[in-house]
Specification:
136 residues, alpha+beta, Alpha-D-Glucose-1,6-Bisphosphate, Chain A, domain 4, eight-stranded antiparallel beta sheet, 3 helices
Length: 136
């Protein structure tokens, strides 16, 4: 069963090009990632990996980009194929960019009930972190 989870729409105080340049290079996430449950960050421009407490090691790679619109990530793990994360952007005026995260994955119905709410909270937390990052 396909599960689609979307974050809330965030507002970043930055022009869309700068936000796109940031989210389309995985190296830029390191300052945001090495705190809380995320540890052992590694990255290059197209991929990143990290450990999460109680979950284990996760790796993502960028599989598609469209400047000014989105960056699409796929999980780089053979046990979790067809797991995607889209970072969608929309220019909404001077120094103001809307952002939304969407993930899609295939899981059984029981697992869907268990993961939908925590996944939504995680996506919203990423949006919160980016809003805080761009509030300065």
């Amino acid at each position: 069963m396909e599960v689609k989870v979307e974050s809330r729409i965030g507002i970043l105080n930055q022009v869309e090009k700068c936000v796109y340049d940031f989210v389309s290079d995985c190296n830029n996430f390191k300052p945001l990632a090495n705190h809380g449950p995320v540890k052992d960050w590694t990255s290059d421009s197209d991929s990143c990996g990290f450990s999460v407490e109680n979950i284990g090691r996760l790796s993502f790679r960028i599989v598609d980009r469209e400047p000014g619109k989105f960056v699409k990530f796929a999980i780089d793990n053979p046990q979790a194929e067809n797991v995607f994360l889209w970072v969608q952007l929309k220019d909404s005026g001077l120094n103001n960019t809307r952002i939304k995260l969407t993930t899609k994955l295939n899981v059984n119905p029981m697992l869907k009930m268990l993961i939908s709410s925590p996944l939504k909270r995680a996506l919203d937390k990423i949006v919160d972190t980016l809003e805080h990052y761009y509030s300065h």
